[in-house]
C-alpha cells in the first residue's frame, strides 16, 4: 500500500470514526466502537472501498496510533467531535506536558488559555518533538509548556489515551509557559 493511499484511508477513517459516522450510515457505540465489517460495508456502499488488509495496514502504520482495534471492532483513539466515552480513567500527568500551535493563535491563547474548540478535550503531548509536529500542521510551530503538575494539584482532571495523548477539558492561561520570542 503506497503512502498516498495510506493517508487517504486514514483521513477517511478519521472523518467517519471521529466526526461524522452518520454520513455513511454508521452508529458508533457509547465508547466510539464500530464493527469493522460494518465500517467496510458502509464505506463501500458510499463509494469508498478499502480492504481489511488495507485497514490493518493503516492502523499499524499510523505514527500517531490514531485508531485502535479490539477483536472485531475499531475506534478512533481520541479527537472526537461527537459524543463518545472513551472510558479512560483519570491519570496523574507528568509535571509538564506540551501543546503545539502557531503564532496567529497566541493572543487568543494568552487571554483564554487552551480550549477544546470542536473536540471534547484539549490534546497535550508528552514531549516537545510531538508537540512540534502537531503545531507544524498549521504552519511554523510554536510549543507551549503546560504546568500540568500545578493543574493536577489544583484539581484539574487528566486522562491519557491509548496512543499516549494527554487529554483535559481546558488549560487556563496561568498554567501556560510561552516561548521566549513571542
TrEMBL record:
This is Probable RNA 2'-phosphotransferase. It is an enzyme of class 2 (transferase). It comes from the Bacteria. PANTHER family: PUTATIVE PHOSPHOTRANSFERASE (PTHR12684), TRNA 2'-PHOSPHOTRANSFERASE 1 (PTHR12684:SF2). SUPFAM superfamilies: ADP-ribosylation. Signal peptide: none annotated. Belongs to the KptA/TPT1 family. It holds the Pfam family PTS_2-RNA. GO terms for molecular function: NAD+ poly-ADP-ribosyltransferase activity; tRNA 2'-phosphotransferase activity. One of its GO terms (biological process) is tRNA splicing, via endonucleolytic cleavage and ligation. Removes the 2'-phosphate from RNA via an intermediate in which the phosphate is ADP-ribosylated by NAD followed by a presumed transesterification to release the RNA and generate ADP-ribose 1''-2''-cyclic phosphate (APPR>P). May function as an ADP-ribosylase. Keywords: NAD, Transferase. Its EC number is 2.7.1.-.
Amino acid at each position: 500500500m503506497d503512502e498516498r493511499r495510506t493517508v487517504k484511508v486514514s483521513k477517511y477513517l478519521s472523518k467517519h470514526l471521529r466526526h461524522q459516522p452518520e454520513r455513511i450510515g454508521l452508529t458508533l457505540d457509547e465508547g466510539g466502537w464500530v464493527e469493522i465489517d460494518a465500517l467496510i460495508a458502509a464505506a463501500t456502499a458510499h463509494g469508498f472501498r478499502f480492504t481489511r488488509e488495507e485497514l490493518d495496514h493503516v492502523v499499524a502504520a499510523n505514527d500517531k496510533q490514531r485508531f485502535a482495534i479490539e477483536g472485531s471492532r475499531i475506534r478512533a483513539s481520541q479527537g472526537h467531535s461527537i459524543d463518545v466515552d472513551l472510558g479512560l480513567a483519570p491519570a496523574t500527568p507528568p509535571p509538564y506536558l506540551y501543546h503545539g500551535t502557531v503564532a496567529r493563535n497566541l493572543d487568543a491563547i494568552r487571554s483564554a488559555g487552551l480550549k477544546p474548540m470542536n473536540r471534547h478535550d484539549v490534546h497535550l503531548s508528552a514531549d516537545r518533538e510531538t508537540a512540534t509536529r502537531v503545531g507544524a500542521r498549521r504552519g511554523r510551530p510554536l510549543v507551549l509548556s503546560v504546568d500540568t503538575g500545578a493543574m493536577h494539584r489544583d484539581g484539574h482532571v487528566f486522562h491519557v489515551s491509548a496512543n499516549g495523548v494527554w487529554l483535559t477539558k481546558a488549560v487556563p492561561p496561568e498554567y501556560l509557559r510561552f516561548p521566549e520570542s513571542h
